[in-house]
Amino acid sequence: MAPEHPPELVIFDSRFADGKLKGDLYYIEVPIGERLRVAWEPEQQPENFQPVGGGVAYVFQAEHVSRLHVAHDAVPDDLGKLRYRWSEGLNHGIPWIMFVLILPTSYTIRDPSLVPARAKLFHGRLALYWILKGDNCGRTTVACTLRKFAGDPYAKLVQLNQICSQENLPENKFIRIEDDLPGRQRHQFMKATTQPRVFISHSSKDKPFVRKLVAELKKHKLSVWLDEQEIQIGDSIVSKISGGLRDSDYFVIVLSKASVTSPWVQVELNSALIAQISNQGVAVLPVLIEDCDIPTLLRDRLYADFRTDFAAGLGKLLSVLQQEGESAAGLGTTTTTTTTSTTLPPGAVPCAPTLAALSLGELRRRITKRMSRTEIATIWFDLFQTKMEDDMAQRPLVDCVIELLDRANKRAKLGEVIAGICADRSDLVNPQ
Q1: C-alpha distances in Å from residue 432, one per residue of 139, 362, 370, 424
Q2: Across 271-285, 315-329, 337-351, 378-392, which has the greatest mean pLDDT?
Q3: What is the Cα–Cα distance from 114 to 194, expressed in whole angstroms?
Q4: 198 pairs with which residues across the strands?
């Protein structure tokens, strides 16, 4: 059955077959003048909602809503090197469309042309959606690169949620995203899916301690990269370690007599420090498990001390890692907005609420990657009336940002940080 008119919800359930990306294509149509209501992640099937796309979402079963399985072997535009593009026309008078992409098993995305709204796991696979606004010709387009991964898909969901906007379509007469999770439950869900990725560098002689540490971190729902769990027989060790570092937010280095003389640990540390110096958002956290000669580049850093009390050291480490999974809004921050009425460009989102909804980890990464040391020092001075360099002389930029957010949080000034950013650098939310 062919669709009568362009849909308002498109679902592409993708797979690789015969070396090509293909998929089942679903259209959900609503008559002009009626609103499409979609539930993305309900705890159970909502009353009067019907599953679509195999159950990846639910739509309100109003009269004349059409659910169509358009094609079994639909093919997106192949742009080469695992990059694909999806295009769809819009119904006359309806400027928005919701596009859902269910990825092939063990695949995630990178470098999307537009930031997706939200992501989740669906039968062990990653699924995500965009809310797309049509161009002047009435078409929507989104592109991304697929990337194969090994291991726990939940860890990739964590990474994917870190780039998602978590923003739904503003309330209007065309599409409404509905979920039955109350506000507190939703905050807890988002906290669980935006925890930072932790790379642990260590000497093989310290495996008993490291395995205990990893077990404790995973109990707290943290995503951990550990060589023995990530590197398989036949893998390139250098490539896997480089990939693990690239995908991580924190580099935890276990300091012991064995590790400070380990060539591999030194290589990993140098790579992490290079990433930090180049403002890629990786933060280095030393963990001290015995008295040893601490490397010069780490001597001025705060460290988690496990030498005499494992629980105390773990508590200090968790205090940093878990706070980064919280959002400013979840920590009780209120954002101020100016009274001047402004009209956002098409597709743009308001700066302050969007930044407040990010985890502190994602906020740190955006600030570190896109703002200069001078800009951060200005916000520091405006908030604390002290010069940043007096307290953080020669410290890496990422350390300055961590300290800025930590101090602001403790003094209930995160809202002022966000206001300062939005005043001059709204491109952290809406790239120019």
Answers
A1: 21, 19, 12, 13
A2: 378-392
A3: 19
A4: 224, 250
Stretch 38-65: mean pLDDT: 83
Burial class (CB in 10 A: 0-12, 13-18, 19+), 30: buried
For residue 128, give the amino acid letter. L
DSSP 327: B
Q: Could you say which DSSP state residue 18 is in?
A: T
Angstrom distance (rounded) from CA 262 to CA 257: 9
Whole-angstrom CA distances from 34 to 30, 219, 296 are: 6, 46, 66
Say how far apart CA 268 and CA 286 lie, in whole Å.
13
3-class secondary structure, 286: strand
Position 187 scores a pLDDT of 38
Quote the CA–CA distance of 35 and 204 in Å, as a whole number. Answer: 59
Closest CA to 13 of 101, 88, 128: 101
Residue 226 sits at the vertex; the CA angle it makes with 220 and 230, to the nearest 5 degrees, is 115
C-alpha–C-alpha distance, residues 66 and 350, integer Å = 34
CB 415, CB 405: distance < 8 Å: no
Q: Are 126 and 103 in contact (CB under 8 A)?
A: yes
What percent of the chain stands above pLDDT 70? 75
Structure tokens at 89: 């026309």
CA distances from 427 to 118, 298, 348, 406, 432 (A): 20, 33, 10, 23, 6
Element (DSSP H or E) covering residue 420: helix 414-424
Give strand pairing partners of 303. none
What are the DSSP calls for 142-169, one per residue? EEEEEEE--S-HHHHHHHHHHH---PPP
Per-residue confidence (pLDDT) for residue 206, from 0 to 100: 92
Residues 105-123: what's their mean pLDDT? Answer: 90
Which of 141-145, 212-216, 359-363 is the least confident region?
359-363
Eight-class DSSP state of 359: B
